[in-house]
Write a structure and sequence with these properties.
This protein is mainly α. It is built from five helices and two strands, in the order H-H-H-E-E-H-H. The protein is about 75% helix and about 5% strand. Strand 1 and strand 2 form a beta hairpin.
Length: about 150
């Protein structure tokens, strides 16, 4: 009799631990998404914006294909994510920017021939597309996937 009681307590504790572990991870991801969305709205730095976008994409990849997801919307978002990834190159967690030779000034790169206003327009385009992607992905995750788990905004 005592063995059965002890076993039931152990099983109950194990059940609670496994259930909270999964919910805890989802809750952490929800909190991180809220932080990233806020940072994305506030930042003016292109490199930070791209880093934020890639972190949101990582969370999106983690939850896509779940039973709560909308297949058509998810396919559209996958296309946007793939398009964004193909147009931005990340090296060691930051956008590629030329390398050591450009920094030392030993070799003039082709980017030096590009007018500053064109460079600025390209940075603004990258920043705005990153912000739009972050907003779209976070809204989708909050309203569709995480809401099904009872953890939406």
């Amino acid at each position: 009799m005592h063995f059965a009681i002890h076993l039931s307590f152990v099983l109950a504790v194990l059940f609670c631990l496994t259930g909270n572990g999964k919910a805890g991870m989802i809750d952490q991801d929800r909190n991180r998404l809220q932080q990233l969305q806020l940072q994305s709205r506030r930042t003016g730095d292109v490199n930070s914006q791209v880093r934020i976008a890639y972190e949101v994409i990582e969370i999106f990849d983690k939850y896509k294909g779940r039973s709560a997801s909308d297949v058509a919307k998810e396919a559209q978002l996958n296309t946007q994510v793939n398009d964004f990834k193909s147009k931005t190159v990340i090296v060691d967690g930051v956008p590629a920017q030329g390398g050591v030779w450009a920094i030392l000034g030993m070799v003039r790169s082709a980017s030096d021939a590009v007018p500053d206003n064109v460079k600025q327009d390209a940075q603004n385009l990258l920043k705005s597309s990153s912000k739009a992607l972050v907003e779209t992905l976070t809204n989708y995750l909050f309203n569709t996937v995480l809401a099904k788990f009872g953890l939406g905004k």
